[in-house]
Amino acid sequence: MIATLGLVAAICGLLIVTAYEGSLPAVKENRRIALERAVAKVLPGAQKTVSYLALADGQVVPGAPDGAPAGALPFQAAYDAQGALMGIAAEGAAKGYADTVRVMFGYKPQCQCIVGIAVVSMRETPGIGDKILTDAAFLKNFEALDVKLGADLKGLANAVKTVKHGTKTDAWQIDAISGATVTSRAVGRGIDEAAQALLPRLVPQLQQIGKAP
Q1: How many domains does the chain fold into?
Q2: Beta strand pairing status for 173-175 and 161-163?
Q3: Which of 14, 100, 173, 182 has the fewest beta carbons under 10 Å from its own?
């Protein structure tokens, strides 16, 4: 009896491993396609995307396909048809109303600003939280959201902050959606935390990735 159960368990384990290994390439390919689409949305016109890691010691290195060193921050460099750097795409995440809201944002070095966002994943209330995808006034916040570094290059000159609807006064503020404030604030926190961590490492190394490899 025990031998039979052991045999069944071994066969089931083998089937699970085989199914996982067989589907892994398709899963990776789907992730790659989804990533490219998200980058194209936040940085329209990009002709080539290259994965990089910003390491804790300040180095910027090509992205590792099978994992990253501890503390490394992944980002995508987007290039135009001539191979010149158009901008950077990176992810931010923060707790929303129902779950974590993950967004990708596009950053342009020329203006030191965020020029677009796309939702990577969220489970906010349909018709309320998902307005961050459709509300034109909210999306306008990300046409030129100021994320300049301070003089010491150790953090943003002004933290990205979501403010009550109708009270935005500065270029680094996000005007929240009335009735969807929690989700709006999640977007702001996610972007601020990601930009505060990534940009101090990335900006001093921009010349290194200025041309497509």
Answers
A1: 1
A2: parallel
A3: 14
